[in-house]
Amino acid sequence: xxxxxxxxxxxxxxxxxxxxxxxxxxxxxxxxxxxxxxxxxxxxxxxxxxxxxxxxxxxxxxxxxxxxxxxxxxxxxxxxxxxxxxxxxxxxxxxxxxxxxxxxxxxxxxxxxxxxxxxxxxxxxxxxxxxxxxxxxxxxxxxxx
Length: 145
Prior knowledge:
Radius of gyration: 16 Å
Helix content: 55-70%
Distance between the termini: 23 Å
Shape: globular
């Protein structure tokens, strides 16, 4: 569950643009909902936020991660893959890998094993996306060198 070794600069650019568009769309929707004086839109946006965060997790996971057993310390890409697996599971609960390398205090989201992922927030997923994309950039620099 690391960054794909075969990721190209073009694929990285598409992933980065996708994350930017998705986060910008969410922020626009949330701002419009807050401006609604009835409160109905704000409630709808609040209910929709976890689903948008889940969609961003699944999409970014598909773009950049190579699934397999993590080697060594768990990276942001590994954490992304673990969260994506939890989102797709019927229980919707975070399960750390068997290696014991996942340390909540050293992760981006800080999820504990067994914690539900059905209430992810967009700001948290955006932080994870930024870290994953930094790992993609590092991978691309290594492949050029």
